[in-house]
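Anyone else keep sequences and C-alpha cells together like this?

Example one:
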Amino acid sequence: MSADHLQFLKNKFILDLKEAEEEHSGENEIPLLSRFQQIRDALKAKDITASTPIRLKNCLYNAISALEECVVLSEKREPRKKKDGPMHGYTLAEHWILCKTRKLLVQVKRKLTAPADAIIPDREGFQEIGIVGIGGSGKTALAQLVFTQSDERYFQDYRIWICLFPKLSGDVDFKEMIKDMLKQCGAAAVVDDGVEVEVEELLENLGTALKGKRYLMVLDGIWDINIHWYFKLKEKLKSLPGDGDGHVIITSRLPHKARMMVGPHNLYHIQPPLNSMEDMSPLHYPMDFLGRYKLKLKDEVIEQCDGLPLAMHTLAPVIEDQILGDR
C-alpha cells in the first residue's frame, strides 16, 4: 500500500510539472523551474518498490506543495512584470518565499539522490567504502538507506548485512560470519548439512556463491578488534573471476581502523553534528511535542543532544516527560 501511495505522489508531481511547463513558458515560466526539473529527473530514475522507505512521502509532499506555490507566484507576477525592474515582478515578501523554497528544493533533491550517489562508486569490479563518524551520527542509517534504496542495477543478485555491534571486544567469529553470508546469498545448504568445515573451505563456498554476481555486503559496526579476518575476506572477493561487481561497505567510529581496511581514498565521513533546530527539523524526529516551547528550549535541546540525530531521537521522550512536566 505504501508503494502505491509513493507511486501516486511521484506521478502527480511529474504530471503537475509538465502542466506547469506547458501553461507557463518563455518569459512567464515558473520560478525555480530548473530545480523542479532536477527533482523530476531524480524521480524518473528512481523505482518505487515495496522496500522504498515510506518517509520519501515527505519529500514528495514538499515538492508538490512548492510547485503549487511557485505556479501561484508566477500568475501573480505576470500582470505586474517589468522587463527592467530590479525585482523582476516579485514583491519583497515573494522573494523571501522563493529563497525559502529554493532551500527546500535543494534538500528534497539531496534526499532523493545523495546517499547512493555519494556512497556507491560508479566503477566496475570489486569496490569497498568505509563510512566513519562518531556514535549516533547516522552511519548505520546511511548504510541502511543505500542497502534498501539503491537501484536494482547496482546489486541485482545479493544484498548481505552483517551486524558486528555485539563484538565490541574480542575477535570476530570469522567462521560464523561466513556462514551467515552464505545463508544470505542462498547457500544455506552448505552450512546446514551438519558437516563441520574449516574457514578456508567456507571462503571457497562463498566465492562460488558470489562468482559473477552483483552484490552489496555491509559490515556494520567495526570496532577496535582484530581485523585480519577482513583482509582474508577481501582477498577472496577480489580474486573472484567473471563479470560480477562486488561492493563492500563498512561502518566504524574509528577512522584509523576504517582507513586500514579500505584505504584513505575510500572513506566517507559523516558530516559534523547538527547545530541548529532548523537542521534537525527536516529529519522528522519527534519534535511536535515542543509546540510553543520550541524556541525557548532549542538551545538547551541542541546542547544536550550535542547535535546528534540519534541522540535527538532517543532523548525526545525524556525531554517531553521531564522538561515539559508530563509526569
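And example two:
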Amino acid sequence: MIHSRARCAAVLIVVLSALLLGACGGSSGGDDDDFPKVITLGAGEFFPSITNQALGVGDNRVGFGLMDRDDQRVLDASVHVRFFELNGDKPRFLSEADARFIPVELSYVDEQSRGEKTVTGSDGYYVVHANFDMPGDWGAKIIVTRDGRTAKPLTFRFNVLDDTPEPGPGDAAPPSRQVTLAVANSIEDIDTSFPPRPEMHRLTVAEALASGRPAVIAFATPAFCESRTCAPVMDTVMDPLYAKYHDRAAFIHIEPYELPQLRQANQREPVPAMREWRLQSEPWVFVVDRTGRIAAKFQGVMAADEVEAALAAALD
C-alpha cells in the first residue's frame, strides 16, 4: 500500500486552492468591493477553498470546500454565492446562485487486502455554476447559513483564464489511444478497481469517437487516489450510468498513472492520455457528444444526476 494515499482530503483541497489562487485572499468583510489579495486564515467563521484545477472564460462548475475556524470541514451549511468581475475600477456584479452540497463517502481500494474497499470518512463539496465572460481577476462573496444563523459574508479573489488547460465544452476531445484489454497482459495492468471493470477497457478514446456515439470518460484511480474520491466516482457515477446507458453510449475508464511505477516505486508518472488531456489531478469525468466534442466536464466530487443530465443532452 502506498501510504501517501492517507493524506486528508482537506489538505489536498487547500493545496489545490493555493495552486489556483496564488496570492488570493479570504476575508470576513461584507462589502461588495472588499476582495483582499492577502489571505487571512481564521479571520472569519469559515474559509472556502476552490477545488478546480483552473477556471476559464465560459460556463464553469465551481467546486469548493468549507472549513470552520477550528479547521473542521463544514458539511451541513446552506451557501449562497455572488460573483463579481474585478478588472475595472469597481466590482461588476455577474451572477448569484445557491450552491449545491454534494456529499461523498471517502474510500479507496486496498490492493494489499485483496482489493477490499476501505472507507476513510465522510466529506462533501459545494458546487455552483458561473459563466465568466472575460479573463482576469474575479471575486466571490459567499454567504453561509448554518444552524439557522447566517454568518458575516466572506469574500475572496481568484483568477479566470482565457482557456483552461484541460479541454472544455465545445472543444474537440483528444483522440487518445490508451492501453485497452486488446493489448494489456491483464486487466490489473490497466485497472485498480475491485472487482475490475473490463467493460470500460474495451475501447480506446479514438475508437469511441469514431463510433459516432456519445462517450463518458473517467480518469480515476480507485486504489491510489490521494483525495479518496476516485472510487466513489466509479461506484456512484460510472457504474449506475453504465448500467442504464451502455447500449447507447461508450463508457471508458482510464487509470491516470503508469501502474508499474506507481506500485513498485510510488512514482506518479502520468499515462499519455493524461498528458493529451492536460490533466493535473484526479478524478475527472468528461461527457463527449456524437460529434466528438466535449459536452461537459466534472472534476473531483460529483453527483450521478449531474453527469446523467449532460449525457442525456448528448444523446438527444
